[in-house]
Amino acid sequence: MLTYRVDDEITLRLLDVHHALTLFRCIQVNRKHLRRWLLWVAETLCVEDCWKFILYTHKKAAKEEEFHFGIWYRGELSGVIGAHSIDWTTKSAEVGYWLSESLQGRGIVTRSVLHMIRFLFEEHDMNRVEIRCALSNLKSQAIPRRLGFQLVGMLREAEKVEGQLENLLIFELLRSEWKSIYQNVVVDTWNP
């Protein structure tokens, strides 16, 4: 199982079927918070739903179409970060993430996204990484802004948030920008 040690507190691991119960419990505890931003939460009703999702991620990872990692914070599964919408022709991918509400504000997602970007640019030779956030999701927007992404556009009424159509902001970071911003940043390597 692919595991990546971000720092002393955070580890990213490809989700495996034995994580299904823990993942479901994490979603359950954060259901009210997550359903505001993520439509799939309403359809995740039992452990089997998480198990099916994890099997789906294995198939996608085997084809290098998507990669979904659990975010372990101090040994506890606390969220998920993923690369999806991978386009090998344009060498682009979209990154998405969620974290337990009680752990927000500690830089966990920022550090995880930083290392996911490295994974995509350096391990998979991507040229462009995109993050999309609802206009009202200020905490999620702070991540790409903090990491040097450029706000490149807005899709109007493109996402349903709490039953209402909302604008979706699009942030992008190019490989060339990554190299100039992070040329002196030392990141651990992937650990098998």
Automatic annotation (TrEMBL):
PROSITE patterns: GNAT (PS51186). Residues 10-174 form the N-acetyltransferase domain. One of its GO terms (cellular component) is cytoplasm. SUPFAM superfamilies: Acyl-CoA N-acyltransferases (Nat) (SSF55729). Gene3D superfamilies: 3.40.630.30. Keywords: Transferase. One of its GO terms (molecular function) is protein-N-terminal-alanine acetyltransferase activity. InterPro entries: Acyl_CoA_acyltransferase, GNAT_dom, Ribosomal_N-acetyltransferase. Pfam families: Acetyltransf_3. This is Ribosomal-protein-serine acetyltransferase. It comes from Seinonella peptonophila.
